[in-house]
Amino acid sequence: MDREDVLPTPPTGTPLPTVVGERYRLDRSLGNGGMGEVFEATDLTLHRSVAVKLMSPSLVQDEPARARFLREARALAQVNSPNVVAVYDAGEDAERPYLVMELVEGTTLERELVRSGRVGPARAVAIATDIASGLAAAHERGIVHRDVKPSNVFLTPSDAAKIGDFGIARLERPDATLTLTGQTFGSPPYMAPEQATGGKVDARADLYSLGCVLFQMLVGRRPFSGDDAVSLVYQHVHSTPPRVDRLVPAVRAELGALVASLMAKDPDDRPASAEEVRRALESVPTEPIAPPTTTATAVLPRRALELGQRRKPWWPVAAVILGAVALLALLVALIAGGNPGPASSPTQQASTTPSSLASSSSPSGAPPQTPEAAGAALLALTQQLQDAGAIDHKLASDIQHAVDEVLNGHGHGHEGDAGNTLNDLKEKIAEAVDHGTLSAANGRRLTDGIDRLEQTLNSEGD
Fold first, then answer.
1. Could you please report the per-residue DSSP string of 170-201?
2. Is 448 a catalytic residue?
3. Residue 277, phi then psi, degrees to nearest 5
4. Is the pLDDT of residue 122 over 60?
5. For 445, how many CA atoms within 13 A lie in the half-sphere containing its CB?
6. CATH code assigned to 297-305+368-461
7. Catalytic residue (one of 130, 147, 245, 398)
């Protein structure tokens, strides 16, 4: 795969040196990070392509930053793992520290998720296993990454995962802890609660971030959404996302439980180490659960299925009981030798009872539709359109998120919020039709499904 896929290529603001360390010729910029700029370069001694990170000029005079850069470079060079981007060399050129690393052929997990939305359980677990293996190797050397996220996970052409960009990593050994106390680094969508609040950060913060990444791979969206870092940080500290096995029926409960444990608010409630996570991922079942008999229930959250089972119609059972009573009465009358005429009265009553019971629910004899069933039907239609390539992935994800939101909020005083959520969803569908990314016919089908869901919510509220 083209190396253009490795990282974005923004224009560099400083002129490039020709050669760094009298050995590495800088060919082009691959992007800027927190600690400096990364270049594709050529090792003039070994005649191979490498990646060279030059410390940002603004940090060159910051002695603690320089010390951290070089200490972490030396520590990373000792990490021997196929799942960590290898460090080949480090030094200084014109008093500017540099780091020479493996140039990964392939793409990033972030770009993969943008293209595909989400990945299947088996592949998600395989990628997460590689990440856990790389983290275990780094943690063993006392290095905490503190910025595990899809853009820092590289996928090779053989689909192996490698962790890169340890630019804000922290050395946890007593003689090498150089980060200032209370200093917060990381990416808000994947940040552990203790990291977000400036608390003590150890290897378990990386496990929380890994849980967020695994959640996104399985569900197709991040655990929390928000327009700003403050909102995201608040949710990481105070909110618990739904379990992935309830959002995606193909995910088994064992995997859902593991993701939930990785994202526990208290570090003590998470797995003890990345190695423990790696072993758990290797043993967790990933075979998809056999789909139910109907398409609607195939995408229905487990909680909704349980509610639907408790709401099975009762009138067929009543009809059977009444029919048995009538038959018994008729047999008693025949045995007694009495006039069968009066005995026919219970029979007639039994024959009319089921009809009267059925008419109390709906003209067709079916029980009223529940919000869960209406939501399942809408999700089934959305999945059908997505499989056929007839709907944009972003819109499909918005529909899934909205249905989950209104079903979880239903019955807890959020009827008004549910109505606003569904109206917003209708507007998005209308915009998709206007932009030509969704046909008018499919737009009407989706809108009808939303209307049915709204009607069931309102009928239960009444």
1. EE-STT---SPTT---S-GGG--HHHHTT---
2. no
3. -65, -40
4. yes
5. 16
6. 1.20.1440
7. 147
Other residues' Cβ atoms within 10 Å of the Cβ of residue 396: 19
What residue ranges do the domains of the chain occupy?
3-102, 107-283, 297-305+368-461, 315-359
Please state, in angstroms and as integers, the Cα–Cα distance from residue 221 to each residue in 190, 200, 227, 303, following that order: 12, 28, 14, 20
Please provide residue 173's backbone torsions phi and psi, each rounded to the nearest 5 degrees: -65, 145
Name the average pLDDT for the chain: 77
For 21-102, strand residue ranges (E) read: 24-32, 36-43, 48-55, 87-93, 96-102
Cβ–Cβ < 8 Å for 422, 450: yes
Does residue 102 sit in helix, strand or coil?
A: strand
User: Which of 108-112, 231-235, 348-352 is the least confident region?
Assistant: 348-352
Q: What is the pTM of this model?
A: 0.59
CA 21 to mean position of chain CA atoms? 43
> Residue 101 half-sphere exposure, CB side, CA atoms within 13 Å?
28
Given pLDDT bands bounded at 50, 70 and 90, which one contains residue 329? low
- The pair phi, psi for residue 241, each rounded to 5°, is -70, 160
- Which class does domain 107-283 fall in? mainly alpha
DSSP H or E stretch at residue 372: helix 371-387
DSSP state of 337: T
Amino acid at 236: H
Nearest to 192 by CA among 140, 262, 280, 276: 262
- Alpha-carbon span 243 to 431, nearest angstrom: 31
- 289: amino acid identity, one letter: I
Alpha helices, H only, 95-222 = 109-116, 121-140, 193-196, 203-219
Query: Does residue 430 have a pLDDT over 90?
Result: no
* Two tokens, residue 184: 């917060």
H or E segment at 66? helix 63-77
- The closest alpha carbon to 425, from 391, 459, 461, belongs to 391
Distances, alpha carbon 149 to alpha carbons 165, 215, 333, 450, in Å = 10, 11, 79, 34
Q: So what CATH class is 3-102?
A: alpha beta
Query: Which residue pairs from 41-44 have beta carbons closer than 8 angstroms and sit at least 24 positions apart in sequence?
Result: 41/100, 43/88, 43/100, 44/19
Distance (Å, rounded) from C-alpha 378 to C-alpha 389?
Answer: 17
> What is the distance between the alpha carbons of residues 332 and 317, in angstroms, rounded to a whole number?
23
* Confidence grade of residue 81 (pLDDT, cut at 50, 70, 90): very high
